[in-house]
Design brief:
Order of helices and strands: HHEHEHH
Helix content: over 70%
Distance between the termini: 68 Å
Structural class: mainly alpha
Oligomer: single chain
Largest sheet: 2 strands, antiparallel
Shape: elongated
Length: 135
């Protein structure tokens, strides 16, 4: 049973998947920083200082705070600003992945369009054919 598990775990697909998950997590952190530290401040500057992460709607009359952290302590809140920020994160990740896959597909098409280099045997057969045509 241990040998079967080792064989399964060391298959190429499982290892590739593990590497993809690790790279995906790192990529997610980069995009989160991009959105939170670069894009959202630019949007906030354009719209007059808006900070989406602090937008919420209190679901009870006990919520009187003006920031999300304090409002959550007072009662139930609908933190739609955080949801909006995460939605923007998702859209950016999806767009970047789309562009990366599109670039890879373009490179694959270029490789597929190029005719394969003839083997040594094919080259020799071509030379023989050409010599027979001349004779």
């Amino acid at each position: 049973m241990l040998k079967e598990f080792r064989d399964f775990a060391m298959k190429g697909n499982v290892v590739d998947l593990a590497v993809a998950v690790i790279i995906g997590a790192a990529f997610g952190a980069i995009v989160t920083s991009l959105v939170g530290d670069i894009i959202m401040p630019i949007i906030g500057a354009i719209t007059g200082g808006l900070d989406f992460s602090n937008y919420f709607t209190g679901l009870s009359k006990a919520v009187t705070a003006t920031n999300l952290a304090d409002a959550k302590k007072q009662g139930a809140v609908l933190a739609w600003g955080s949801f909006l920020t995460l939605t923007i994160n998702f859209l950016i990740i999806a767009f970047v992945l789309f562009m990366a896959i599109k670039a890879m597909n373009t490179l694959k098409r270029k490789d597929a369009d190029a005719p394969p280099k003839p083997t040594r045997q094919e080259e020799l057969l071509t030379e023989i054919r050409d010599l027979l045509k001349k004779a």
